[in-house]
């Protein structure tokens, strides 16, 4: 099968970029696959972080063969890319959907590609509804979704949301693969903890800090945990909103000695250190359909305490591989963090995760894609 993928890859910086790169690698091993990526992904004024490109990682998650020909702000490049894509003679076109920003590009590119090549179109829907949702965003998403023939989602909620927009659409759920590429076996747990200066119980909140990630509820849970057991909370990731708000909250709660803030993008080669040094990953999200952070934790066999939303409630076996709690409930979150440490669940939960690891392979995602053919 000739497959053409449209989406980000290195040096663009995001979980979607890592996902697309590893998907390209998997498909290349079994099919004639091409990847068309972006010469420019986002305009700087649109992007809330310091940069959307990875200029610091020594360990580069990349795959040879990508063509960087699409400028998100220059429609001339969209049409010039069409000529190159046509020559690939694709049977299947795969595009990723996660934000309405890509609406104009996809509404131009996808129908033109179908007309020129006769290829079927598969949308991998990372978010059917965006984290910061609106009526306009849902309108754009529905317009783009109507252009595709097939859909993949990573959660039942994603399937339900998509079916509500497009009743009867050809959608299949596939597990979001685990990011085992980050485990380079370059550092042991004790060395990782020493490197980060960590002692005792350690919980990890990892990734970009955005409103829907629910960090405020995790911070509010910390004093309750400290009444029963020791805890260091490591918050590692770039803040995409007012950091001072969280610093003020930490001071007000009196937990400055128990919270470590690392406000910057974590290079790929350092991800292993943070996950191996931690005892549990905490994802107190208030909404969403899934999390790439959870898939990193699973790759490291690191138990997860998370809110009962989206695919998190599907990948975490409550009481066996982690705990699920209600969103926006610091007391219940504190209760489960405390229970996890006081009862010593880390080893048994990690063993249970290991037994399920085969469910989260890139080959299974490939097989789901192939099932549409």
Helix % is 25-40%
Unreliable residue runs: none
Main sheet strand line-up: 3-2-1-4-5-6-7
Name of the CATH first level of the largest domain:
Alpha Beta
Task: Describe this protein's structure.
The protein has 373 residues and is α/β, with parallel strands linked by helices. The protein has 2 domains: 2-173, Rossmann fold (3-Layer(aba) Sandwich), CATH 3.40.50.11930; 181-358, Rossmann fold (3-Layer(aba) Sandwich). The protein is 40% helix and 17% strand. The chain is built from 14 helices and 13 strands. The chain has helices spanning 15-28, 75-87, 103-117, 135-145, 156-165, 189-196, 215-226, 243-253, 268-277, 292-299, 312-315, 330-342, 346-356, 362-370; strands spanning 2-6, 32-40, 67-71, 92-97, 120-125, 150-153, 171-173, 202-206, 232-236, 259-262, 280-283, 304-307, 322-325. The strands form 2 sheets. A 7-stranded parallel beta sheet has the order 3-2-1-4-5-6-7, sandwiched between helices. Helix 6 (189-196) packs across helix 9 (268-277). The longest helix is centred in the N-terminal third of the chain and has 15 residues, at 103-117. It is globular and about 65 Å long. The N and C termini lie close together (9 Å). The model has no long low-confidence stretch (mean pLDDT 95).
Task: Describe the secondary-structure layout.
Elements: E1 2-6, H1 15-28, E2 32-40, E3 67-71, H2 75-87, E4 92-97, H3 103-117, E5 120-125, H4 135-145, E6 150-153, H5 156-165, E7 171-173, H6 189-196, E8 202-206, H7 215-226, E9 232-236, H8 243-253, E10 259-262, H9 268-277, E11 280-283, H10 292-299, E12 304-307, H11 312-315, E13 322-325, H12 330-342, H13 346-356, H14 362-370
Parallel strand pairs: 1-2, 1-4, 2-3, 4-5, 5-6, 6-7, 8-9, 8-11, 9-10, 11-12, 12-13
